[in-house]
Specification:
- With about 475 residues, the protein is an all-alpha fold.
- It has three domains: about 15-200, Growth Hormone, Chain: A, CATH 1.20.1250.20; about 210-270, no CATH class; about 270-480, Growth Hormone, Chain: A (Up-down Bundle), CATH 1.20.1250.20.
- It has helices at about 15-50, 50-80, 80-100, 105-135, 135-180, 180-195, 210-230, 245-265, 280-310, 315-340, 345-365, 370-375, 375-390, 390-400, 405-440, 445-480.
- α1 (about 15-50) runs antiparallel to α6 and α11 runs antiparallel to α16.
Amino acid sequence: MADPPSAVDAPGDRRRWQALGVALVAAFMTLLDVSIVNVAVPSLQQALHASPSDLQWVLSGYALTFGLVLVPAGRFGDAHGRRTAFVAGVALFTLTSALAGLAPSPGWLVAARLLQGTAAGMVTPQVTGLIQQLFRDAERGRAFGLLGATIGVSTAIGPLLGGLLIALGGVDHGWRWVFFVNVPVGMLGVVLGWRLLPARPAGQPDRHLFDLTGMLLLGAGVLLLLLPLVQREQWHSPWRWALIPGGLVVLAGFARWERRYARSGRVPLFDLRLFGLRSYTLGALIALVYFGGFTALFFIFTLYLQRGLGHSALVAGLAITPFALGSALASALGGRIVGRLGRPLVGAGLAVVVLGLGAVVLVLRGGPSGSVPLLTAVPLLLAGLGSGLVITPNQTLTLAEVPVPQAGSAAGMLQTGQRLGSAAGIAAVGAVFFSVLAASAGDWSAAFRHSLLLAMGIIALALAAALLDVALGRRAARQRR
């Protein structure tokens, strides 16, 4: 098949924005499958007679394989063209969505979800890499702002759309439509992605061997770190925690191998020299820590509302909506102004998140004396507005100095850190939640407040990293004068 004309970098070229639209739709689809499936769990449990272990793998298997392939997929897109990797990922995601919807047994569904997560991990770094490739300066901030808004909207609409599809399809078949809804969107994404996304630039190398050893070492290290975290509810042996130091050792071996591989004149899976950029290193640290705090919020709030207070999944989804909508709105704004304000904008956003979550603790301090979803709506909206000023601007600043030929692998490593942070944060905050619940004889309100305080503390660490970056930046500016 002949390549269509590539998108160009001219500021007025509408084709770039059309390509971005296709990429954002694919990102929306893959992110939607994180939240929408949570609502479908009771329905598919009843229809397939799935065990708790099966259900855990349906949910966590997607996140696990998603995190494993981010960096290799990003590197592949850098070397061989992001259009090829994007279209292949969307095609696989579409196929595995159909297979998940047709699943006759729990084992079939788990296998489909593992492959579906792999496909999502193939697509995600291409979206970020395309933004780096196609946009510059203020336009890049706007593009990242639209990506942040897409993340917020997908988070907000997932539980609502899932609840609607299950209501329309019924208990036995509604959960299948949660997966089938991806099929027509994915098919359109494959066609438009091939037509609109740019082919590999003419000067981009395609001759390098793929760093297979580096890929295996990174995959093994991430797997050892993630597995005991995502399987925390089903794998109760204390020996599972031994995998974490083992994972750190393997990642140290990965770093050593990458340095050796680069010294030999070959292109590594991930160029460790990127960590010599202060913007990339501190930005990746902020993302790692922040995702450890803010994603845990959704986990404990859903538990509190559904299992503690007896609300439906639809009500729980509506209760989280103010945060997600606030994040979507502020992301678009943050993308436009980050070029002028820089890292102080991220610090301000983190401070607003902490204030908003602190307000949630205050309104619930007397216990659930009223409607918790209504009491928490305004504080969560405030926290969401702050979050929108964190994720998108931080991603823009973190990748600002990364060379375009390394944009995919750099974005993949950044997003891998986010996945690790999310898993570790949910494990830590969830442990506090259940410990307080057991110690307080079932006081769900106390468990939520105490675990929320831990999540706030984790986010405060991200704020400290942002303030450190601001201070180092100002000192560097003074030294240049």
